[in-house]
Amino acid sequence: MTHRTLLPVLGLTLAACRPDFADVDEACKDKVKGEKHASTESGDFFRRLACYRRYAGVEQPRVDKKVTIATEAHVDWLDANLETATNWFEEDQGTPLYYGASVFDRLDRAEFNIDIASSLVWQVFMPVTENRTRSENVDLLIHDPHYRDPLLAPGWYGGGYDEGKDLFLGVAYSVWVLDLPSGTHTGKPVFWPVDGDTDVPPEVNVWRPGDGYDAKLRGYPISMTFGSSEILGIGRDNALAVSVISSVITADDGTVVEHDVELPSSSDWGDNNSTVILWPADALQPSTTYTVDTEVSWVTTPHKKFSWSFTTTSEPVTDVLWAARSAPPPGGRVHVRALDRSITPTTPR
């Protein structure tokens, strides 16, 4: 769902507080929760994700031992069955190293107790090559506002990550278990870019619903990811009842940026459970400070206003990450996305 809005924001407005870090790298730590259960590769991935979450002001990601067991088992199955597998997200019973048909089956076999009525389970495939590190994969994922929905979700339970071997070498598989409703960040969304960020590209190569299979250079998408202790219903679009009453993006020279607003929903492109995306109609200007003023409401919080600013750099991000995802919404309905864009294993590291 999209609509255009350039309405003025009036009255009391809350500042979207800037984190106490100069940039994402300053927010990094040497370790991530549960890292003892992670491989070196998994630790690299989740440590970088922790940088972004800490910078954005949300709880840290956690590597979970049992989620890791289920993740590694599925990669082992893919290594053994890649030539015959018809769906990378699901295993075929009776095949070598079969561990469970769906991600829920595999988590259950690994003895991870999941309440599918209040959890989201994301599965993501992404390439890992000699020319792109795991950290760089996270950097590119964050530019896609649909991936911010899980990566910056307030309620993060645990994740697993593994990389293929043999025929599957060069492709990574990750599983993320999130809480919905989260019970955290119920009074303020998670903003991206964050307030005071000075490293925002004016354009980024990213997909948007309706694009088909071609990413396009677009003005940098701005997002708000919401948390709530309540949801309206299991498995429904916009379960947090997020509404954008008004939104204005203004450059430091007074120019108002025309933009579309995308609300949380399910589409052929993917499931967006709790994130509002502001899509600029054109590229942002380089080396320019922008202020975002919004009035929003969601299921537990009516009519709240926020204001924050960020500054663009001089260069766009033209690289793009091909990633396939499966994002089951609450209730365990599994939606397989992006499989038509088959990912071909690339140059081994």
Any chance you could write out the topology, listing elements then pairs?
Blueprint: E1 2-4, E2 14-15, H1 40-56, H2 65-81, H3 103-109, E3 119-127, H4 134-143, H5 145-151, E4 156-163, E5 171-179, E6 190-192, E7 197-200, E8 203-206, E9 216-219, E10 222-225, E11 243-251, E12 259-262, E13 265-266, E14 271-272, E15 275-280, E16 289-298, E17 301-312, E18 324-326, E19 336-337
Parallel strand pairs: 2-17, 7-17
Antiparallel strand pairs: 1-12, 3-5, 3-18, 4-5, 6-10, 8-9, 10-15, 11-16, 12-15, 13-14, 16-17, 18-19
Helix pairs in contact: 1-4, 2-3
Please describe what this structure looks like.
- The protein is α+β, with helices and mostly antiparallel strands and 349 residues long.
- Helices cover 17% and strands 29% of the residues.
- The chain contains five helices and 19 strands.
- Strands 1-12-15-10-6 form a five-stranded antiparallel beta sheet, with helices on one face. Strands 2, 7, 11, 16 and 17 form a five-stranded mixed beta sheet that branches. Strands 4-5-3-18-19 form a five-stranded antiparallel beta sheet, sandwiched between helices.
- α1 (40-56) packs parallel to α4 (134-143) and α2 packs across α3 (103-109).
- The N and C termini lie far apart (40 Å).
- Mean pLDDT is 82; it is low at 1-12 and 329-349.
